[in-house]
């Protein structure tokens, strides 16, 4: 069964600290993996997209890693800011053949001053 | 570009009523997606279109849900009759391509639907 599991469900950190969010998936065949940031009351915004051959991709203070062998991904946030408070959603696309998006339930991050 | 436009932003209706949600995708995007988001189930893909043609509607929960895309700049998601369990935030998204890594999806602000 295609599944995407994220951990932790929620996380509270102090401003300036680093944190790492986890995404484990059992999706086959694998096409790509996306991390989205969703602010409260807004639609998700793409942070990174990685294919099978990519191990690391950065977007400013956000760095995503992908281990296709263990089917794990992580999103590392460096020097957190109050504006990083949001939900972070991992999405794995399957394909080719049967193209599907499989969504994780997200990690809710709160950054405190 | 104004981005993906959705209307209304909020909708409150009574059980049994018909609800129509509207979406205007980003100009030039060939793909349009409808999603539903709830606290319990997270984001779920309901249906997506390619060049105005429905490609995969396997996520549509029941026959009470229907979606149309009469032209490249407009799509609707209709629920008839609505039920309290349909209460959720409905997002529309558009993309210039499907699953290749270079194609991103751009989400609208969502419509918060409450069915009483």
Record the SSE blueprint.
The complex is a heterodimer of chains A (113) and B (116).
Chain A: E1 3-7, E2 10-14, E3 19-26, E4 30-38, E5 45-51, E6 56-59, E7 62-67, E8 72-77, E9 86-94, E10 100-103, E11 107-112
Parallel strand pairs in A: 2-11
Antiparallel strand pairs in A: 1-3, 3-8, 4-5, 4-9, 6-7, 7-8, 9-10, 9-11
Chain B: E1 5-7, E2 10-13, E3 19-24, E4 31-38, E5 42-50, E6 53-56, E7 65-71, E8 74-79, E9 88-95, E10 106-107, E11 111-115
Parallel strand pairs in B: 2-11
Antiparallel strand pairs in B: 1-3, 3-8, 4-5, 4-9, 5-6, 7-8, 9-10, 9-11
Summarize the structure.
Chain A is mostly beta strands and 113 residues long. Chain A has strands at residues 3-7, 10-14, 19-26, 30-38, 45-51, 56-59, 62-67, 72-77, 86-94, 100-103, 107-112.
Count of DSSP helices of chain B?
0
Distance between the termini of chain A: 41 Å
The residue fraction in helices of chain A comes out at: under 10%
Mean pLDDT of chain B: 93
Shape of chain B: globular
Category by helix and strand content of chain B? mainly beta
Coarse structural class of chain A: mainly beta
Tell me the β content of chain A: over 45%
Cα-atom Rg of chain A, whole angstroms? 14 Å
Give the overall silhouette of chain A. Answer: globular
The multimeric state of the shown protein is heterodimer
> Roughly what fraction of the amino acids of chain B lie in strands?
over 45%
> H/E element string of chain B?
EEEEEEEEEEE
Task: Describe the model.
- The complex is a heterodimer of chains A (113) and B (116).
- Chain A is an all-beta fold and 113 residues long.
- In chain A, 0% of the residues lie in helices and 61% in strands.
- In chain A, strands 2, 4, 5, 9, 10 and 11 form a six-stranded mixed β-sheet that branches.
- In chain A, strand 7 (62-67) and strand 8 (72-77) form a beta hairpin.
- Chain A starts with a strand and ends with a strand.
- The mean pLDDT of chain A is 93.
- Chain B is built from no helices and eleven strands.
- With 116 residues, chain B is an all-beta fold.
- In chain B, the strands form two sheets. In chain B, strands 2, 4, 5, 6, 9, 10 and 11 form a seven-stranded mixed β-sheet that branches. Chain B has a four-stranded antiparallel β-sheet with strand order 1-3-8-7, with no helix packed on it.
- The chains are: A mainly beta (113), B mainly beta (116).
- Chain A binds chain B through residues 31-32, 41-46, 49-51, 54, 89, 91, 93, 95-96, 99-101, 103-106, and chain B through 4, 41-45, 56, 91, 93, 98-102, 104-105, 107-110.
């Amino acid at each position: 069964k295609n599944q995407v599991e994220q951990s932790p469900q929620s996380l509270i950190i102090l401003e300036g600290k680093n944190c790492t969010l986890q995404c484990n998936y059992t999706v086959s065949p694998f096409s790509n993996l996306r991390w989205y940031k969703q602010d409260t009351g807004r639609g998700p915004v793409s942070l990174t997209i990685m294919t099978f051959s990519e191990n690391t991709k950065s977007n400013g203070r956000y760095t995503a890693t992908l281990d296709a062998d263990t089917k794990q991904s992580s999103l590392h946030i460096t020097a957190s800011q109050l504006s990083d408070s949001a939900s972070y959603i991992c999405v794995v696309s399957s394909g080719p053949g049967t193209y599907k998006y499989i969504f994780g339930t997200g990690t809710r991050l709160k950054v405190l001053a | 570009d104004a981005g993906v436009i959705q209307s209304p932003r909020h909708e409150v209706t009574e059980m049994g009523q018909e609800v129509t949600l509207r979406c205007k995708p980003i100009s030039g995007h060939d793909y349009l997606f409808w999603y539903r988001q709830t606290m319990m189930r997270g984001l779920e893909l309901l249906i997506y279109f390619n060049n105005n043609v429905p490609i995969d509607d396997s996520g549509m929960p029941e026959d009470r849900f229907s979606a149309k895309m009469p032209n490249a700049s407009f799509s609707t998601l209709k629920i008839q009759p609505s039920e309290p369990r349909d209460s959720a935030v409905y997002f529309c998204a558009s993309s210039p391509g499907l699953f290749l890594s270079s194609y991103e999806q751009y989400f609208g602000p969502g419509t918060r639907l409450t069915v009483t």
